[in-house]
């Protein structure tokens, strides 16, 4: 895709979601040297409207030869460099749905534009220096955000909250490198190297690196969400629990079609963390005895889950069948939900496996206990060292990998200094750290890395 850019050219794509019979507006975006010429061939703006940058024109998109009107639309023209890509950009704001935008896109392609690759607009913005790589990745995160907090964290990245500290660490490394290299080249003319100072500076960078790295788990949680499996015997109240949970105030529910026929998935938001709930209650009462108590289904759901809610019936207590399910899921972080507590006066003291630490009583049918359940989930998440507290910074896996490489290189520099190795050796690892930090912001990046990052974007972004 970046090759496409190197070849230049004008690109076009539908920038909005294309859904039949839905969406009141659909946008076709065109970027490149020919964008405005293409707009002029296709768009007819009646009256005395001026074709000026950053102004909206009202009119019709017409077939350039037949003059058949394809849509009534608005046209927004943004001349370089004041545009998303820093190239000339035009946007046709058409009617929504499928036909108007597709026909307008088709006309743009016939007029000489190429269909944009996924992320190609943002790639151009990056290559033209409008965004660094951390900001480009934040845009993709923002589009894919599944909770307000995830969106907020992405926005912070877009505003440069990650770019700034990484750039500053890299600059410090470059300064140290310059100091050392000067000693290699002109040793006699300069005062001796202040070793203690260099060590202190590197230790400072390492401390900062460790701090930023610690946000990776949180970043992952905000990006992908927490997968929670509700498991348990039939009729203990798993579906009721999910229903009660989905109805509670804090929950934002998006129903997703289950990925397997036995599991229903819903997405909720708990304490800012997107939570994907895998409910195994879908299928029941097969002839198979093992399947009947839900053992296999529970095992499969737990396999995919970050956290398991093992649900039991308060009246029945801890039964051998519950124990059998527990066997299958106990390798995962787990909360025991004792449901139907309304049916028992007081929660009876069961003898539970002593590996179970978190127990939450609920009466799902009466919407009781959901708050406590959410608290227990957040507590479990915190304990596993994942928290959604500082939303200013949350790095992704690629950034974490590069930062870890930078850290290793810097630790190596310290070891080299301690071992009193010649200055040439110091610079090798320092360069490694500089390279790794540069990969995060995109100051040093290969085409294959760019392809990997931008191919994950949607088309038109
Ligand atoms: P599942 O098979 O585990 O999904 O269980 P369901 O959610 O379908 O519930 C089984 C039965 O237990 C239904 O008749 C529910 O109304 C009932 N039930 C669920 N939760 C409670 C509860 O907290 N208290 C009482 N009394 N009944 C409940």
| Percent in helix | 40-55%
Work out the helix count: 17
| Widest sheet, order of strands | 3-4-5-6-2-1-7
Mean pLDDT: 86
Per the principal axes of the C-alpha atoms, what is the gross shape?
A: flat
Which structural class fits the helix and strand makeup? alpha/beta
Radius of gyration: 29 Å
Number of strands: 14
Largest sheet: 7 strands, mixed
Bound molecules: guanosine-5'-diphosphate
Unreliable spans: 1-6, 250-262, 281-287, 385-389
Strand content: 15-25%
Distance between the termini: 13 Å
What this model shows, in words?
The protein is α/β, with parallel strands linked by helices and 461 residues long. It is 44% helix and 18% strand. It contains 17 helices and 14 strands. It has helices at 2-6, 35-42, 99-110, 120-127, 133-144, 148-158, 163-185, 195-213, 216-224, 238-247, 289-292, 295-303, 320-329, 370-383, 397-418, 423-441, 447-454; strands at 11-14, 25-31, 43-44, 55-62, 69-78, 89-95, 114-115, 226-232, 254-260, 263-270, 273-279, 307-313, 334-339, 359-361. α5 (133-144) packs antiparallel against α6 (148-158), α7 packs antiparallel against α8 (195-213) and α8 runs antiparallel to α15. It binds guanosine-5'-diphosphate. Guanosine-5'-diphosphate binds at residues 232, 234-240, 281, 339-340, 342-343, 363-366.
Give the helix/strand layout.
Elements: H1 2-6, E1 11-14, E2 25-31, H2 35-42, E3 43-44, E4 55-62, E5 69-78, E6 89-95, H3 99-110, E7 114-115, H4 120-127, H5 133-144, H6 148-158, H7 163-185, H8 195-213, H9 216-224, E8 226-232, H10 238-247, E9 254-260, E10 263-270, E11 273-279, H11 289-292, H12 295-303, E12 307-313, H13 320-329, E13 334-339, E14 359-361, H14 370-383, H15 397-418, H16 423-441, H17 447-454
Parallel strand pairs: 1-7, 8-11, 8-12, 12-13, 13-14
Antiparallel strand pairs: 1-2, 2-6, 3-4, 4-5, 5-6, 9-10, 10-11
Helix pairs in contact: 5-6, 7-8, 7-16, 8-15, 12-13, 15-16
This protein binds guanosine-5'-diphosphate (GDP).
Guanosine-5'-diphosphate binds next to helix 10.
């Amino acid at each position: 895709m970046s090759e496409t850019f190197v070849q230049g050219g004008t690109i076009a794509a539908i920038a909005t979601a294309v859904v039949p019979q839905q969406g009141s507006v659909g946008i076709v975006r065109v970027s490149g040297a020919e964008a405005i010429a293409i707009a002029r061939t296709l768009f007819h703006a009646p009256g005395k409207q001026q074709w000026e940058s950053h102004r909206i024109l009202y009119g019709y998109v017409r077939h350039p030869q037949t003059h058949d009107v394809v849509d009534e639309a608005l046209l927004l023209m943004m001349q370089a460099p004041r545009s998303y890509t820093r190239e000339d950009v035009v946007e046709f704001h058409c009617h929504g749905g499928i036909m108007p935008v597709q026909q307008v896109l088709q006309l743009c392609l016939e007029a000489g534009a190429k269909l944009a690759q996924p992320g190609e607009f943002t790639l151009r913005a990056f290559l033209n220096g409008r965004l660094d790589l951390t900001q480009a990745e934040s845009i993709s995160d923002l589009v894919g955000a599944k909770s307000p907090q995830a969106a907020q964290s992405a926005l912070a990245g877009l505003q440069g909250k990650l770019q700034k500290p990484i750039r500053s660490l890299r600059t410090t490394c470059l300064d140290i490198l310059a100091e050392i290299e000067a000693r290699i080249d002109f040793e006699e003319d300069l005062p001796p190297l202040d070793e203690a100072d260099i060590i202190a500076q590197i230790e400072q960078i390492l401390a900062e690196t460790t701090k930023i790295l610690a946000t990776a788990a949180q970043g992952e949680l905000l990006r992908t969400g927490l997968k929670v499996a509700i498991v348990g015997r039939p009729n203990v109240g798993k579906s009721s629990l999910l229903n009660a949970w989905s109805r509670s105030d804090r929950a934002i529910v998006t129903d997703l079609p289950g990925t397997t026929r036995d599991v229903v998935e819903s997405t909720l938001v708990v304490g800012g963390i997107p939570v994907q709930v895998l409910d195994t209650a879908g299928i029941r009462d097969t002839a198979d005895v093992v399947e009947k108590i839900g053992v296999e289904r529970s095992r499969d759901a737990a396999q995919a889950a970050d956290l398991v809610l093992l649900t039991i019936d308060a009246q029945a207590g801890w039964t051998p069948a519950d124990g059998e399910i527990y066997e299958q899921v106990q390798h995962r972080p787990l909360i025991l939900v004792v449901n139907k507590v309304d049916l028992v006066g007081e929660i009876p003291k069961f003898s539970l496996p002593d590996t179970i630490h978190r127990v939450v009583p609920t009466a799902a049918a009466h919407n009781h206990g959901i708050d406590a359940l959410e608290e227990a989930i957040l507590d479990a998440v915190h304990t596993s060292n994942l928290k959604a507290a500082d939303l200013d910074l949350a790095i992704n896996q690629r950034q974490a990998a590069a930062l870890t490489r930078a850290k290793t290189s810097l630790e190596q520099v310290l070891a080299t200094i301690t071992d009193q190795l010649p200055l040439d050796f110091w610079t090798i690892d320092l360069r490694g750290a500089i390279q790794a930090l540069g990969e995060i912001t995109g100051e040093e990046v290969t085409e294959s890395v760019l392809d990997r990052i931008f191919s994950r974007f949607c088309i038109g972004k």
